[in-house]
Design a protein that fits this description.
Layout: E1 7-8, E2 11-12, H1 21-32, H2 36-44, H3 47-54, H4 64-81, H5 90-109, H6 116-136, H7 142-149, H8 153-162, E3 172-174, E4 181-182, H9 194-208, H10 212-223, H11 228-235, H12 239-256
Antiparallel strand pairs: 1-2, 3-4
Helix pairs in contact: 1-2, 3-4, 3-5, 4-5, 6-7, 6-8, 7-8, 9-12, 10-12, 11-12
Length: 257
């Protein structure tokens, strides 16, 4: 994508006008009254916003003219939906709208390429699935489909996954007139749930209560994976002592948590 291109979609970007805050405010009043000339002037006066946004999508292999046109759609939507009574600058409101429009365009026009052989397997699998469902009045398992096709189960799973349309995590799944609920809101995060976070804090606090020798033993045993015999040789005590101190330290941690 050539970001140093001066003329985009017939627009000379080197000569784009810049509006003052007072001009924007006045134009918006006229736009709300239905003044089309004010609307056109306001759009032209904010095309630099579109230019600044599309630079974020450099190296995507897309034509700058296409991205500029899509960005302009986002700009126009922002103008149509902006509330001048809100204490927010137009650019603050418009930039996310422009970005969202470009991202939707990229998502809808850059689907993952699936090989013909994979598509053939997937469509055959779907045909078999429908046939077995009608015969047995229940949905067949992947194993049953793979057996009919005489193919490995893994190959059938991979083929079916390959033809699934990608869905954005920001795709709304419910909207009641207020805030939308997105797909990402329905997904759980097993790595960052509150319980894990609290357990980690409790564990760190419990470790601080141990003496230096106990900390050393637990570090060598559970972070470096050494045996009790290796630990005893490293810190100069018997294996029995290592075992006793390890059990005592673990008991203290469990009691604190």
């Amino acid at each position: 994508m050539l970001m140093n291109k001066v003329e985009i979609c017939g627009v000379n970007t080197a000569k784009l006008p810049v509006l003052t805050s007072a001009e924007k405010k006045e134009l918006f009043k006229r736009i709300k009254e239905g003044d089309e000339s004010a609307r056109e002037k306001f759009i032209n006066g904010n095309l630099r916003l579109v230019l600044s946004v599309i630079q974020r999508f450099n190296n995507r292999g897309e034509y700058v003219d296409d991205l500029f046109q899509v960005g302009c759609i986002g700009l126009i939507k922002a103008i149509d939906n902006f509330d001048i009574n809100q204490n927010v600058q137009f650019s603050t409101y418009a930039v996310p709208m422009i970005i969202g429009e470009i991202r939707r365009y990229l998502r809808d026009n850059n689907s993952i390429r699936v090989s013909r052989s994979l598509r053939d397997i997937a469509y055959k699998a779907l045909s078999v699935k429908e046939k077995l469902t009608n015969q047995n009045q229940k949905e067949p398992t992947v194993d049953e489909i793979a057996k009919v096709l005489d193919l490995p189960k893994e190959e059938v799973v991979f083929a079916l996954d390959a033809i699934q349309d990608p869905i954005s995590l920001f795709e709304p799944v419910y909207h009641d007139g207020g805030d939308a609920i997105f797909i990402m809101d329905q997904l759980s995060d097993d790595k960052n749930i509150d319980e894990n976070w609290l357990e980690e804090i409790s564990l760190k606090e419990a470790m601080r209560r141990l003496n230096e020798r106990e900390k050393k033993i637990l570090h060598l045993r559970f972070f470096e994976g050494k045996t009790q015999m290796e630990v005893s040789q490293e810190i100069g005590i018997s294996q029995a002592q290592v075992s006793r101190l390890e059990k005592s330290a673990l008991k203290a941690i469990r009691k604190h948590i």
